[in-house]
Amino acid sequence: MQTTVCHEHTRYIIVIERWLKVPFQKEDGTLIERTKGTPQGGVVSPVLSNLFLHYVFDKWMDRNYSQNPFCRYADDAVAHCRTRTEALALKEKLDVRFRECGLELHPEKTKIVYCKDDDRQGNYPLNSFDFLGFTFRPRRSKNRWGKYFVNFTPAVSNKAGKMMRQKARRWKMHLRSDKSLEDLSRMFGPVIRGWIAYYGSFYKSALYPTLRHLNRTLVRWAMRKFKRLRGHRRRAEHWLGRIAQRQPWLFLHWEMGIKPTAG
């Protein structure tokens, strides 16, 4: 039994080593030798990264900085400190720890951010950061009694919003005049629902510009599909708005109230 495990273990090491050292092939077929890191986009890279960082970062933080909550996803992490002095000390220790393990902190992306709100009104050069598609920064919020206050909260980032709009453009929905509105709902509705479920978890109104972009695309689809609407954007928007009022279940953002103008 022990021999079998040893042989299997050896085989896995050889496979991983080959994976790490395999040359990178460019679009023109040119091969580039690799000397460090894992292949970008390789299926093994996230697995190895998580295994390595689990011990390099997660377990190390638990042992040495249990008073500082943190969250890590792949190679992105956020650690919470109570003071600027504490944050600077942790950053310095992390830099040493990573270098000891053959890694390095990203010189531009590793930064100290001040979580400014009504209770923390100090000044610091940076008071926002992006993490997992959200931008965390001071925002004007309303409490249950209708009183406004400044809170340090997440909302969909500009980069994530741009990514969603780019993906929607790749659908070429406005060119699918052979499809009905119900067809478009079945084809793209689940993706839109997923976006809203994830990015709409916090400060949902930040997602509205992207959802309105989808409505404009649907208006273009209507103008192309129906002869009577060609060249009449306002008429097409009003037509689509009336359908959104009658059948809001076709798209989740319609159910949320983000509909074309009915006229």
Produce the secondary structure layout.
Layout: H1 2-21, E1 24-25, E2 31-32, H2 44-64, E3 70-73, E4 76-79, H3 84-100, E5 129-131, E6 134-142, E7 148-156, H4 158-171, H5 181-199, H6 208-225, H7 233-246, H8 252-255
Antiparallel strand pairs: 1-2, 3-4, 5-6, 6-7
Question: In brief, what are we looking at here?
Answer:
The protein is an alpha+beta fold and about 260 residues long.
Structure description:
This protein is α+β, with helices and mostly antiparallel strands. The protein has eight helices and seven strands; from the N terminus they run αββαββαβββααααα. The protein has a three-stranded antiparallel β-sheet. The chain has a two-stranded antiparallel ribbon with strand order 1-2. It has a two-stranded antiparallel ribbon with strand order 3-4. A hairpin with a 2-residue loop joins β3 and β4. α4 packs parallel to α6. The longest helix is centred in the N-terminal third of the chain and has 21 residues. The chain is flat and about 70 Å long. The N terminus is likely disordered.
Q: Tell me about the biggest sheet? A: 3 strands, antiparallel
Helix content: 40-55%
**Order of helical and strand elements:** HEEHEEHEEEHHHHH
Could you tell me the mean pLDDT? 88
Q: Order of strands across the biggest sheet?
A: 5-6-7
Q: What is the terminal separation in angstroms?
A: 76 Å
Structural class: alpha+beta
Number of strands: 7
